[in-house]
Amino acid sequence: MSKFIENDKSVNFSGNDYLGKEVQLSNFSGKKVLLTFLRGTSCPFCLGRIKELVKRHEELKKNGIEVIAIIAAKQEDVARYSTKNSAPFPIIPDPEQEIFKKYGISTSNFILMKAMMRPMLMMKAMMQNFNGMTFLFEPSLLPADFFIGENQRIEKLKYGTFLGDHLSLKDILAS
């Protein structure tokens, strides 16, 4: 799948969240959705993004924005992390990256090298969200965010160029 651009129609998907509940993007028609793609449950940047979304969930909800996170990890890993952090939105495990592929999200053999080239950012992420060194062995996926409008069209998007590269929540809330 090629990469999307603004105003493209989003691609429907279905998957079971970490609690086993089926989630379909088409069920969110008529609502605004922040669809965020994350690398894994031990990636400090991904954990930071989840924590940020949990912390600001009520603010997003008040602005009519639903959150769906897709994470390239096994269900049991996602459940262990999500339960610990009380995620109030669906987090869908996608260990085979099937949904990632539908959205044109690519891998990068240099993803960790790029992160290491930003030592202050890397240290901050690891100090705040360290969950072991297993993140070094997670898929080399880049993060991506899609802000989907009520008509299921992509209003804003960001294909990350390094770990932790996401759409700003400030920009999303201003939409």
Overview of this protein structure:
The structure is a single chain. With 175 residues, this protein is an alpha/beta fold. It has one domain: Glutaredoxin. The chain is built from 7 helices and 7 strands. A 5-stranded mixed β-sheet has the order 5-4-3-6-7. A two-stranded antiparallel ribbon has the order 1-2.
Choose one word for the global shape: globular
Assembly state: single chain
**H-E string:** EEEHHEHEHHHEEH
Number of domains: 1
In DSSP terms, counting alpha (H) and pi (I) runs of 4 or more, how many helices?
7
Strand order of the largest sheet: 5-4-3-6-7
Q: Which structural category fits the helices and strands?
A: alpha/beta
Helix content: 25-40%
Q: How far apart are the termini?
A: 27 Å
Note poorly predicted spans: 132-137
Q: Indicate the radius of gyration in whole angstroms.
A: 15 Å
Question: How would you name the CATH homologous superfamily?
Answer: Glutaredoxin
- The portion of residues forming beta strands comes to 15-25%
Question: Which architecture does the CATH hierarchy give at level 2?
Answer: 3-Layer(aba) Sandwich
At the first level of CATH, the class is: Alpha Beta
Give the overall average pLDDT. Answer: 83
Largest sheet: 5 strands, mixed
